[in-house]
Amino acid sequence: MIDFAQRHPDPNDRKAADEFAALLTPVIKAYLTDAGFENTVTAMQCYGGHGYIREWGMEQFVRDARIAQIYEGANGIQALDLVGRKLPQNRGRLLRRFFHPVDAFIQDNMADPALHEFVMPLAKAFGQLQTATQHVALQGMANPDEAGAASADYLRLFGLTALAYMWAQMARVARQKLQNGAEDPDFYENKLKTGRFFMQRVLPDTSALLSKVTAGAETLMGLDAEAF
Q1: Which of 36, 195, 212, 223 is the most buried (most CB within 10 A)?
Q2: 100 domain-assigned
Q3: Is the pLDDT assigned to residue 144 strictly greater than 90?
């Protein structure tokens, strides 16, 4: 999309691509660097006590991955940018650059029984993201603390939904390749298996995230400064 924003011959397409990239930049940066750190910690755990020493190199990966959450705008700032700048910008126009194609994909593929296991979880997550977006927009206008309190969980919910959208598209392509006699069927079968894992074991976190987004700022702001 950045390439399109810079080089597409149609100025309207350039503008649309630029807005899409602007919206997704904080989501991509924060969600993926958080996930990268979590995965290196899990990898270190697989080594047991040996994972903590230098001999295997995993502790270096953990330390290297951790700094990515701070580089180029700490992830908390990315979350505040998402809810404080990107969501309200141009009366929500940036959001439509993502919401409209996701909704169109769901509508176009919902009737395909072979894709139900991918499209239906995406549809549920997308509905939760829409609910969370409405909550952040309405509550945040009345009280900025509400938007700030929801920001990190909202960004993670957005990131999971975006990945679900990508996995659903990959699943559709993988099935098409297998139906057409792909030369490397194991590759595409493994794509489907990985996509199922994401839909069933990772994506359900959106339900808990929605609960946290809508919990409000009261408990977060409840302690007086002197209590710290």
Answers
A1: 195
A2: yes
A3: yes
Degrees, nearest 5: CA angle 91-97-99: 95
Separation of CA 131 from chain center: 15
- Is 72 one of the catalytic residues? yes
Count CA atoms within 13 Å of residue 74 on its CB side: 2
pTM: 0.95
How buried is residue 47: exposed, middle or buried, by Cβ count under 10 Å (0-12/13-18/19+)? Answer: middle
The single-letter code of the amino acid at 66 is R
The structure tokens listed for 153 are 């969980």
Rounded CA separation 170/58 (Å) = 30
* Segment 24-51, tens digit of pLDDT: 999 999 999 999 999 999 999 999 988 8
Choice among 38, 55, 72, 218 that is catalytic: 72
When divided into structural domains, the chain yields a total of 1
